[in-house]
Specification:
Elements: E1 12-13, H1 16-22, E2 28-29, H2 40-46, H3 55-58, H4 62-65, E3 77-82, E4 103-104, H5 121-131, E5 150-155, E6 159-160, E7 168-170, H6 173-183, E8 189-192, H7 204-215, E9 220-224, E10 245-251, E11 258-259, E12 268-273, E13 279-286, E14 291-294, E15 298-301, E16 326-331, H8 334-354, H9 356-359, H10 367-377, E17 389-393, E18 396-401, H11 416-424, E19 427-428, E20 436-441, E21 444-451, E22 456-461, E23 470-476, E24 480-484, E25 489-505, E26 511-518, E27 525-531, E28 538-550, E29 564-573, E30 602-604
Parallel strand pairs: 3-5, 3-8, 4-5, 8-9, 9-10, 10-14, 18-26, 19-21, 20-22
Antiparallel strand pairs: 1-25, 2-7, 6-7, 10-11, 12-13, 15-16, 16-30, 17-18, 21-29, 22-28, 23-27, 23-29, 24-25, 25-26, 25-28
C-alpha cells in the first residue's frame, strides 16, 4: 500500500516545550489498577486465589495451542512499551535475556541506558499476562497467552512522581521517541498500558503514536482504555487515538461477561488538526473502545524492589520483596486487559507467520487484518449494543448503525477460538487489492484490500445463508498520520470514511436489496452483528464515499495513487447466537484519564 509523504499545508515539530506544558499540572499516569472499591484480595479468593482458573482457556487460546502445528506465539516479537521495564528475574520471565535488544530506552530515560533502575512493578504485572512461561511443577496461572512470543520491553519514563507507586511519570522528547523508533517496525505487537487526557486524540504525542502505527502497518498496537469509567469521553491517549486496538476491562469472576464500572468508555470526542494547525473537535460522536478482556481478579508476577515507580528517590519507597516466586493476586484495571489482547494478537500473527496456508501471504500479518479478525471473533458481552436499529431512508428499509461498536465493550470479549476459525477456516484473503467486484468468497473469512474514493468493493458469499442466522462482519483501516524521526515533524494528514454494508443478491448475483449498513463518520472501524431476515444469497460491500477530513496537498488521499488499505472479515453462524439478541439500545458512557493506586500484596507461589 502507498504511504503518503504529506506535502500538507500544515506541519509542526515536536519539542520539549510541549512535554513541559503537558506535564505542568500533572504527570502522565500509568493506567495501573482499579479504584479502591474493587477489593483484589476478596476477589482472588474466589477466582484465581487457588491458581486454578485459566483465563487463556476462557478466551479461547486453546484453538491456537491445540492446532496440529501448535501456535504459541512463535515467530513473533511482542514488546511491552510503558514507563519502565518488566523484571526478568521473576520465575515466569527469566527466559528473557538482559541486553539492549530486549530492553530499549533512550539515554535520558530514568537510569540512563542501565536496565536495572527501570525494573517496574506495573510493567512486570502486564508482561507476564502477555508471555509469561510456566515453571516446572508450576501452574496455569503462570502462562501468558502468547507464552512462545519473543518478549521485549521499552521504557519511556525520564522520572517518576512521588509518592512511590503513585503510578505517574515524566518524559523527555528523547525518552519518548527512542523506544517508539526502535520498537515499531521491529515488534509484531506492542502493548501500552499508560495514558493521559486527550479525548480527541489530537495532542502532538497522540499524533506521533498514531503515525508510528500507520507507518509501520506490520506492527499491531494495543492500548488500555483507562480506569475512569463509568463516565463517558474518558478514554485516554494512546487509547483515544485512531490506530490502536483499545481495550476495556471485564469483570464478573470467571465469566468475565460484564464491563467493569471503572473501565473508561465512549461516546468519545472526535478531533483533527486543520490546515492552520488548529484542533477541530466534535463532541461525543465516536466509539473509542475496540475490544474487551478480563480486567479484574487476575494474578500476575510481582516485583517489589526499589526501582522504577518504587525507586529510592520517591517518598514512601520500601523494598517489598524481590523473590522470584512472588505474585500479586486479584489485580484489576484496563492495564491488565490490554496485555491479554496483546497476547491474543501475537497468536494471530504467530499463525500468520507459521502456518503454510498463511505464511506465504504478507497480508495475513497486517495490523488491520489482526484487528478485524479479533473484532469479528469477539463474543458479545452482557448488554452489548452498537446502536443498530431498523430505519427507512429513501424508501429503503434496512438495519443501520452510525456507532459501529458498543461504547464500553467495543466488539465484545476477545474470543480466540472464533477468531482462529475465521483466520484459517474459510476465505483466506482475496488475490490482489483491486476495486470493484472482487469475486465469490466463503461464508467465513477475511480480505486485505484497497479502496478508492467513489468506488465500492463487493464480495459475493458463495453459500446460501440461513434466515435468522447471525452474520457478523468488521471493517477497519488506519488514519493517515505522519512523523519524521530525524526532524520530529508531524502532521495530521487524512482520515478515510469507509462504510460496510450487507446486501441480498438477486438471481444474477447482483447486489439488489440493502439489508444492513455500518456507516459511522468518525470511527476507523465499522461493525455489524445481526440476524439475517431470511434464507438467501448475500454479499458484503466496502464503500468509500469520501474522507472525514483531508489535509493532503491537492486532497489526494483515497485517489488511485493513494488508495486506503483496509481489512474486512466476516462470519455467518448457522444458528442464532446470544450475541445477536442484544442489538438494540444505545448505551452512552465515556472516559478520561486515571491515576489510581491500589496496594498489591505479594504472595509466594506454591
Amino acid at each position: 500500500m502507498h504511504r503518503l509523504d504529506p506535502a500538507t499545508s500544515w506541519q509542526a515539530t515536536l519539542g520539549d516545550a510541549h512535554l513541559t506544558e503537558l506535564s505542568s499540572s500533572t504527570a502522565i499516569p500509568t493506567f495501573g489498577v482499579a479504584p479502591d472499591e474493587y477489593d483484589p484480595w476478596a476477589a482472588a479468593t474466589t477466582t484465581v486465589g487457588g491458581y486454578s482458573f485459566d483465563v487463556n482457556t476462557l478466551l479461547g487460546a486453546g484453538a491456537y495451542y491445540d492446532n496440529p502445528t501448535p501456535i504459541i506465539g512463535q515467530n513473533t516479537i511482542t514488546t511491552n512499551l510503558e514507563a519502565g521495564y518488566f523484571w526478568n528475574g521473576h520465575e515466569t520471565l527469566k527466559h528473557v535475556v538482559t541486553n539492549t535488544t530486549n530492553f530499549v530506552s533512550g539515554s535520558t530515560a530514568w537510569g540512563g541506558t542501565s536496565v536495572a533502575p527501570k525494573y517496574d512493578r506495573h510493567a512486570t504485572w502486564a508482561t507476564m499476562l502477555i508471555g509469561g512461561r510456566q515453571t516446572v511443577g508450576g501452574g496455569i496461572y503462570q502462562d501468558g497467552i502468547a507464552f512462545g512470543t519473543d518478549l521485549r520491553a521499552a521504557a519511556i519514563a525520564s522520572s517518576w512522581v512521588s509518592p512511590a507507586y503513585a503510578l505517574s511519570f515524566n518524559l523527555t522528547v528523547e525518552s519518548f521517541l527512542v523506544p517508539y523508533q526502535r520498537t515499531f517496525g521491529v515488534a509484531d505487537v506492542v502493548n501500552s498500558s499508560f495514558g493521559f487526557t486527550d479525548p480527541e486524540g489530537t495532542d502532538a504525542l497522540s499524533i506521533v503514536m498514531d503515525a508510528y502505527a500507520f507507518q509501520n502497518p506490520l506492527t499491531t498496537y494495543v492500548a488500555s482504555a483507562g480506569n475512569e469509567g463509568p463516565a463517558s469521553n474518558t478514554v485516554g491517549s494512546p487509547g483515544s487515538d485512531y490506530n490502536a486496538i483499545t481495550v476495556g476491562a471485564l469483570t464478573n469472576a470467571n465469566a468475565f461477561d460484564t464491563v467493569a464500572s471503572f473501565s473508561s468508555r465512549a461516546p468519545q470526542d472526535f478531533g483533527y488538526l486543520d490546515t492552520s494547525g488548529s484542533a477541530i473537535s466534535i463532541p461525543g460522536v465516536r466509539a473509542a473502545v475496540d475490544l474487551s478482556a478480563p480486567g479484574a481478579s487476575l494474578v500476575s508476577a510481582f516485583w517489589g524492589g526499589q526501582a522504577g515507580g518504587n525507586n529510592p528517590t520517591l517518598t514512601s519507597s520500601t523494598n517489598q520483596g524481590t523473590s522470584a516466586n512472588l505474585y500479586s493476586l486479584g489485580i484489576a484495571g484496563t492495564s491488565f486487559a490490554a496485555p491479554l489482547v496483546a497476547g491474543g494478537a501475537a497468536l494471530v500473527v504467530s499463525a500468520a507467520k507459521t502456518l503454510p496456508s498463511l505464511s506465504s501471504n504478507p497480508a495475513a500479518a497486517q495490523s488491520v487484518v489482526v484487528k478485524s479478525l479479533l473484532l469479528t471473533g469477539a463474543d458479545k458481552t452482557t448488554g452489548w449494543s452498537n446502536g443498530q436499529q431498523t430505519v427507512t431512508v429513501g424508501g429503503t428499509t434496512y438495519i443501520r448503525t452510525t456507532q459501529s461498536l458498543d461504547y464500553a465493550a467495543g466488539a465484545g470479549r476477545m474470543d480466540l477460538a472464533t477468531t482462529f476459525g475465521i483466520q484459517v477456516g474459510g476465505q483466506i484473503d482475496v488475490v490482489g487489492t483491486g476495486t470493484g467486484r472482487l469475486g465469490t468468497v466463503a461464508r467465513t473469512g477475511w480480505d486485505y484490500g484497497a479502496a478508492v474514493v467513489g468506488t465500492t468493493n463487493d464480495y459475493v458469499i458463495s453459500d446460501v445463508l440461513t434466515g435468522s442466522s447471525t452474520l457478523t462482519a468488521s471493517l477497519d483501516w488506519l488514519r493517515n498520520r505522519y512523523f519524521d524521526y530525524a526532524t520530529t515533524d508531524y502532521a495530521d494528514v487524512a482520515q478515510a470514511n469507509l462504510n460496510l454494508s450487507v446486501w441480498e443478491l438477486d438471481g444474477s448475483n447482483a447486489f439488489a436489496t440493502l439489508v444492513a449498513r455500518s456507516e459511522s463518520l468518525y470511527n476507523t472501524v465499522e461493525h455489524l452483528s445481526f440476524l439475517l431476515p431470511h434464507s438467501g444469497r448475500y454479499g458484503l460491500r466496502v464503500e468509500y464515499p469520501g474522507n472525514t477530513f483531508d489535509n493532503s496537498a491537492g486532497d489526494v488521499w483515497g485517489s488511485p495513487a493513494y488508495p486506503q488499505d483496509y481489512a474486512v472479515s466476516w462470519s455467518a453462524v448457522p444458528e442464532p447466537s446470544l450475541a445477536a439478541t442484544s442489538v438494540a439500545a444505545v448505551a452512552i458512557a465515556m472516559i478520561s484519564r486515571s491515576r489510581f493506586c491500589l496496594a498489591s500484596r505479594p504472595v509466594a507461589g506454591p
